[in-house]
Fold:
Amino acid sequence: MGQLVLDRIVDELSSIDEQSAGGRQDAAELRPWARDFTKSGEPIETLLDYLFDECIPRSFTTPGPGYLAYIPGGGLYPAALADFIASATNRYTGVRAAAPLLADLEAQAMEWIREWMLFPNSARGLFTSGGSSAAFTAIVTAREKLLGTRLREGVLYLSDQIHHSLGKSARMAGILPDRQRKIPSTSSHQLDTAALEAAIEADLEAGLVPFFVASSAGTVNTGAVDEIPAVQRIAKKHGLWHHVDGAYGGFFHACPELRPLLRGLPDVDSLTLDPHKGLFLPYGTGALLVRDGTDLEHAHSEGAGYLPELSRDAFDAHQYGPELSKPNRGLAVWLCMKLYGEERLRAAILEKRTLALAAHERLAKHESLRFNGPPALSLFPFWLSWPGATQADEDRATRQLVADVNSRGRVMISGAQLADRYVARICVLCFRTDRSRLESGLADIESAATSIAQESHPPKDGG
Ligand SMILES: *Cc1c(COP(=O)(O)O)cnc(C)c1O
Structure:
């Protein structure tokens, strides 16, 4: 069975460059065969045929070089091998005593990430299912430390550009919408720090307890990086926990030459990272780093009579996070970091930014495309405009642009609704995206932009 699966995967991955970036779009529903829970089972070949011939092709080609939509990552193949080893050998890594060296590998991978982020030795972290659950654990940890039983008095501050998982996590952590303040962002889509300070002061005045603020190290909509040091000053002045959402942008801090772009990141209380984005792993691995590991421990530590004795001098994940039995997520992180080495991983991360800068520079020459400026990291928004275009014209044309480019199949881009306009956006983060694929995608964007602008704004006679 293993050999059959491997054969299908090799075929699939070796054709990834030829696949349409958006995947097959023909409508389909689950075949009656797939709903049928048979009495005595079926051969693996039939199951693999259905998966590889019908299900997998009808999905965005997220691992492909043309995937520039949302936040890519790619999915390093050796990480799948690590997951295969972890699942096939099925050792128990929820409690360290049951598999000490495997648990220590996971802790070691987190140590390397901690060093990249320049967090102190006191920091501890968890590998999570993704950025959303990392944010949830950060909020719970801050809530336990700063609010205790005063749950209803606590107030949390999020910019209107922060990822929606923060508000959702806050609600799940008992911080209800009436205790969540949405702070406006500036014209550069960064959290407005003056508005933040004013909101905190108003809540203090009202007898509430401001306790948590989140900044973005790269927003999903526009890639903006908040002014982390300014938010940090306000947070420390008023005793708030400062969390940074680095699910998209955090791994750019691995590159020393890019650290100035994320100034202040090593000073904050907690940080979300998504190895399944910026470290190119397959979906299912996020991470949370907490500056003072004892905060994480205080929020989660519990004993039970039946569990083996805790190893106090080594990291035991279930004492620091919500899970007990869990996949050994850190094995894939450890294996990929060990396999490729620091220099190659950094070079791959740096290359994504270099490609995004070049893409912006080329598109900026197009007469009908408009920009906020070059990408802060490797993501930038843009929109169509022409003389005399109204906001509604521009929004409609920009939606059309996204659809036209995607229908060509060489790249897939996505859009975002901002407060004042609809934007198309490019995010370069898949490790398979190279210069030649990017250039063919840019050519598609340029030609679609030219024809949409011409149709919308036909040149006058002789013009
Ligand atoms: C992806 C993302 C998240 C959510 O992370 P998941 O891994 O999808 O749960 C949060 N914030 C940002 C900036 C992201 O890019």
Q: What stands out?
A: The two ends are 66 Å apart (CA to CA). The chain has a mean pLDDT of 96. The first strand starts at residue 124 and ends at 128.
